[in-house]
Amino acid sequence: MSVTIVMGCQWGDEGKGKIVDILSDKADIVARYQGGANAGHTVVISGEKFILHLIPSGILNQNTICVIGNGVVIDPVALLEEIALIESKGIKVRGRLLISHRAHLIMPYHKLLDQAKETKDAEQKIGTTGRGIGPAYVDKVDRMGIRIVDLLDRETLKTKLCRNIEAKNEILNKIYEKDGLNVEGIINEYVEFDQKIDPYIKDTSTFLNEAIRDGRDILLEGAQGTLLDVDFGTYPYVTSSSPTGGGACSGVGIGPTKVDNVTGVIKAYTTRVGMGPFPTEIHDDANVNLRELGDEFGATTGRPRRCGWFDAVIANYAVQVNGISSFAVTKMDVLDTLKEIKICVAYKHNGKKITSFPSQLHILENCEPVYETYPGWEAPTTGVRHYEDLPVNAKKYLEAIRTLTNTDISIISVGSDRDETIFIKSRNL
Ligand code: GDP
Ligand code: IMO
Ligand code: MG
């Protein structure tokens, strides 16, 4: 039995959905530990694409139980839509999805506040997904949040909703000059969620701890990535939760001594959506169009992703803050046609070489990447299933990642489909 955290090492969209889906083949339970419907996790099965926002990516394996942990912020409207969509494809969700009674709810005012804040001041804009994530976590920490458990008690729910809507309407009116929300309408809508969500509600911390005691295999699925972490990311251009390894324990209610492995999902290059510094970003290079090659458009918002070279400073930072046991390197095939591929091995700032990831934004913004250049393999890799069969230069590139980070690679993804995957058996490439 084992408990494995699967989390993102860069700015999200590393391919966590695909990796969780393939690993869940052997897992009894997959639990999401943070974030909300800002996530877009793609799983492709025999050409059919599924995009998951709140439900763990294990749901497509019929034998896996899925848990939405206490660390997740749940938009009931998005959740019910997602359940309906998955069930419409013939996949059973009822009886296989458990939702923590301690998880916080995203309310309509969270979404309005998120969007209003983003449009009010262009200089402060983060480029959020507009899903209400930041304001929902603010309310949680401010002890004003409404939790799943509150849906079970109509009177308390009504009292809390009235208090919250009144307070938020004042902010919407006075600060953002927007119309407030109708209290009655929201109360009627949310008391209805009680019946719809009730069958899924559970004390998921107890459930997971019992499962661990019974020797079951568990995956803890992160959303977003290390550099979007509210503590370790490129603050303030981050999300409002803790996607890093440490967030997994508090996000599902298990102790750190129960975790056996941390699989860091990392793209063979780098992408980011939204604002903020990105040292290895490629600007207008006619020879290297990673956005087109990798089809880099957001799974949640459809926004074009910013693209750049693999950054070993970031990879090392991810190893450090997450305690990564091994990497799953994704989207290797996207580099198949390139003549040369660069890896950033350090930054230069004011003439000085830096190898640790800077915490000060103005330093990061002015860092110049120091690159090593590797010859491309200029051959297709999507059909490859064994490490030995990869082109020599692809193996050299992966070996460089392993050496620069002193971290083994356990999985290589060479296409979006489930099957387009190479598992590394031996610990040394
Ligand atoms: P996540 O948020 O980390 O789950 O990643 P996303 O689903 O947002 O983005 C990853 C995208 O890359 C999705 O469209 C996947 O279908 C796709 N993908 C995942 N692995 C591979 C791969 O190895 N090669 C290619 N070409 N696409 C991949
Ligand atoms: P997955 O799980 C990529 C980014 C947004 C924005 C910042 C804050 O699919 O990897 P938020 O709405 O969370 O307040 O936005 O975080 N962001 C993501 N970028 N993948 C994601 O999720 C993201 N979730 C949020 O673009 O820059
Ligand atoms: Mg995504």
Percentage of residues assigned to helices: 25-40%
From the helix content, strand content and strand pairing, which structural class follows? Answer: alpha/beta
Shape verdict? globular
Q: Biggest sheet, open or closed, and with what strands and sense?
A: 10 strands, mixed
Determine the N-to-C terminus distance.
25 Å
Number of DSSP helical runs? 12
State the total count of DSSP E strands. 20
Low-confidence stretches: none
Strand order of the largest sheet: 9-7-5-2-10-1-11-15-19-20
Beta fraction: 15-25%
What is the mean pLDDT? 95
Bound molecules: guanosine-5'-diphosphate, 6-O-phosphoryl inosine monophosphate, magnesium ion
- How large, in whole angstroms, is the Cα Rg? 22 Å
What does this protein structure show overall?
The protein is α/β, with parallel strands linked by helices and 429 residues long. 31% of the residues lie in helices and 21% in strands. It has helices spanning 16-23, 76-88, 108-120, 133-141, 154-174, 183-197, 204-213, 245-252, 290-293, 312-322, 361-365, 392-405; strands at 3-8, 29-32, 41-45, 48-52, 65-68, 73-74, 97-100, 104-105, 201-202, 218-221, 261-267, 270-272, 306-308, 310-311, 326-330, 340-349, 352-354, 368-375, 408-413, 421-423. A ten-stranded mixed beta sheet has the order 9-7-5-2-10-1-11-15-19-20, with helices on both faces. Strands 14, 16, 17 and 18 form a four-stranded mixed beta sheet that branches. Helix 3 packs parallel to helix 5. It is globular, with a radius of gyration of 22 Å. Magnesium ion (MG) is lined by residues 12-13, 39-41, 299.
